[in-house]
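Re: [ENG-882] Designed sequences occasionally contain unexpected residues at chain ends

Forwarding the minimal case from QA. Structure tokens:
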């Protein structure tokens, strides 16, 4: 069974209430339920962690090295400046997909740069919560293809 870590960064626990015109009305709990349902349908196991703390996100990435085969991560605002998270992803040597609920490229200039992008296999941005589900499926395909 393919095992995947899903990491939500800062403020993502506020989905559904935080700027719904930008991030939509899907709640954090509803999103996580959909992620679990999608993973189950695909025959995958996911562990979902949310933290507003950079260190806890890094610890989760390190821990994933012992059990996971891939990482789906929305680093939130850490996307734009956390070289520590970037380095943790690189060190983990697991395929990672970066997800953003909003289209960061159509927003503030500072949101358009990701320090994480160079160490992930791809990004899914602007497709709302559905982006996480697409990332889970893409991760399954990546892992299966790498074992052929």
């Amino acid at each position: 069974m393919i095992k995947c870590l899903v990491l939500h960064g800062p403020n993502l626990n506020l989905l559904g209430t935080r700027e719904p015109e930008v991030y939509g009305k899907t709640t954090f709990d509803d999103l996580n339920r959909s992620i679990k349902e999608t993973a189950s349908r695909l025959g995958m196991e996911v562990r979902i962690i949310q933290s507003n703390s950079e260190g806890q996100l890094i610890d989760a990435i390190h821990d994933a090295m012992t059990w996971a085969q891939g990482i789906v991560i929305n680093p939130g605002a850490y996307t734009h400046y956390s070289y520590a998270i970037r380095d943790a992803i690189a060190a983990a040597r697991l395929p990672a997909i970066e997800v953003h609920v909003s289209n960061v490229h159509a927003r503030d200039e500072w949101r358009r740069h990701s320090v994480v992008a160079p160490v992930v296999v791809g990004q899914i941005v602007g497709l709302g919560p559905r982006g996480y589900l697409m990332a889970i499926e893409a991760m399954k395909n990546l892992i299966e293809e790498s074992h052929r």
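QA comment: On inspection the terminal residues look reasonable. Residues 6 and 48 are 5 Å apart (CA to CA). Proposing we downgrade this to a documentation issue.
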